[in-house]
Specification:
260 residues; alpha/beta; Rossmann fold; 2 domains; six-stranded mixed sheet; 11 helices
């Protein structure tokens, strides 16, 4: 999309995603209300909250898996409801906890899926697949021809990240992608992915209920409670927040550290 079609913040930073008084309800039940914030390009925003707080529902508004019932969500300055859903989702990588890899596809075929759908040439796809496997620490000669069930959980998550990056989307959505991993593998992947995000400059929206993970990864934290964003700011501001839900999460962090 041309640069002049994208809304900018006052400091010239381009907005990747904008929530404009967005809400979502099903029948009589309101799941999200009053979401009103922007995500600049290149930011790592972590949506933190308990189960049922609305963080995953918020993420689904971005790639139009659901549409807001009030207000509007805009991606690159254009309402999600005005995008062709397929074109929108090809601009957005999506990583979930169980990776969603096709078990009957090789790792190379899984990673190259979106470029294949976009009509890339086979040689171009192969080069991209090998580039991305190297990027996420999986040697192509060793892993490209394997199948998902031949990999560890951590290795499958790396493949999931590589697949999400395959068509070079500007935005990545990640829904508790490391939640099922053991603590050591999880921390390794958190640190590696944070470095990768900074290197590539991707805009990332990352869902978690783990405050430690939020502190490791985020440039800003959006704290969700009962379908509302009750705090949005950096880690330093989160530590200073007097909001009861922020204080509850901070207590769990202190408890973990004291036990360690």
């Amino acid at each position: 999309m041309p640069q002049d079609d994208r809304k900018q913040l006052g400091n010239g930073t381009t907005i990747a995603v904008e929530f404009d008084h967005a809400g979502f309800a099903v029948k009589e039940r309101t799941l999200l209300s009053g979401l009103n914030f922007t995500i600049p390009m290149g930011e790592f925003l972590v949506l933190l909250g308990r189960s049922g707080s609305g963080k995953t529902t918020t993420m689904k508004l971005i790639n139009h898996l659901i549409a807001p019932t009030t207000g509007e969500v805009r991606v690159q300055g254009k309402a999600t409801t005005a995008w062709d859903p397929i074109q929108l989702r090809r601009k957005i990588g999506y990583v979930i906890q169980e990776t969603g890899l096709f078990p009957h596809f090789t790792i190379a075929r899984n990673v190259g899926l979106v470029p294949t759908l976009q009509g890339w040439q086979p040689r171009q796809i192969k080069l991209r697949v090998h580039e991305l496997l190297n990027l996420v620490g999986l040697e192509p000669a060793q892993f490209a021809d394997r199948y998902p069930n031949q990999l560890s959980g951590g290795q499958r998550q790396r493949v999931g990240v590589a697949r999400a990056l395959a068509a070079d989307p500007p935005i990545l959505l990640m829904d508790e992608p490391f939640g099922a991993l053991d603590p050591i593998t999880r921390l390794d992947l958190q640190q590696e992915f944070k470095h990768l995000q900074q290197e590539l400059g991707k805009t990332v929206v990352f869902v978690t209920h783990d405050i430690q993970e939020a502190f490791v990864l985020s440039s800003r934290i959006g704290l969700m409670e009962n379908g509302e964003m009750v705090f949005l700011g950096d880690k330093e501001a989160f530590v200073r927040s007097t909001h009861p839900e922020a204080q509850t999460f901070l207590k769990t962090l202190k408890s973990i550290r004291s036990e360690g």
